[in-house]
Amino acid sequence: MPQDILYSTDTTKESASHHIGQASDEHEFDQILLDEESFYSVTPQRLADHHARRCKSKLVVDAFCGCGGNAIAFARAGMDVVGVEIIPDRVDMLRHNSRIYEVPEQRLSLIWGDFIDLARNGKVSGDVIFLSPPWGGPWYRQEGVFDLTRPLPGLGVAVDELLKLAMRCIRQRTRESGELFGVACYLPRNIDKSQLKRLVPVGEVWELEKNMMNGRHIAYTLYTHKLATVGI
Where is this region: Disordered (predicted)? Predict the structure, then answer.
């Protein structure tokens, strides 16, 4: 049976947690490039580092990489990363930000494209597929419960279809490498957990982790297969 695993992380600099990486000085911090949406949607640095520890593998695909909050954390943790982003300006920003944090070029490959199309056509695979899709801007927080069956903004698919596509990608990689890792999906804090349980494919091993910062519940992260602690 799935269960909630509470992971608490704390940061004394709340403002810094909303930007990529942890700048070593103010000058470096000021060089980070983010567009308006990324400024409020980028994964907090402490949580991105935690995701990197949980997703440790040889090759991670960050399916909606944006300006690089998670992709950079994965690369800094020593993994090879494929970042997929449909907005070209964000690809350029991620490339810039990766240089600020001295990510080796060979660690990070960027694809300007649509992850859903790539996945449907078998053109992307990885040990781990990390999903942090657009939830609809800051307005989704005003909803009582985030409806996981509703197509996601700009994607045309809901969470269940997205998970199925991601699992297809990891199985494609498994046929090549012989090892199955899993999918990680970053989810809003106002999801209905019973609804999520119904959406996860039957028979899959999975874990739902509650993510905390400064004593505040900010999100959930779903892990499957080898990434999950349940049943392993």
Answer: 1-23
How does strand 80-85 pair with strand 4-9?
unpaired
Domain annotation for the chain: domains and CATH numbers: 4-227 (3.40.50.150)
What CA–CA distance (Å, rounded) separates 84 from 82? 7
Task: Enumerate the H helices of the chain as residue ranges.
Answer: 26-30, 36-41, 45-54, 69-76, 88-100, 115-120, 159-177, 193-199
pLDDT of residue 91: 96
Tokens 């942890």 belong to: 22
Whether pTM exceeds 0.85: yes
In Å, how far from its chain's centre is CA 206?
Answer: 16
Q: Is the pLDDT of residue 155 over 60?
A: yes
The tokens for 44 are: 């907090």
In angstroms, the CA 147 to CA 158 distance is 9
5: DSSP letter: E
Residue listed under structure tokens 């810039």: 96
Q: Which of 11-25, 98-112, 205-219 has the highest mean pLDDT?
A: 98-112
Only one residue has tokens 């992971």, namely 7
Closest C-alpha among 55, 56, 43 to residue 9: 43
| Phi, psi at 14, each rounded to 5° | -60, -40
- Helix 69-76 vs helix 45-54: crossing angle, to nearest 10: 50
The dihedral sign for the CA sequence 41, 52, 93, 166: negative
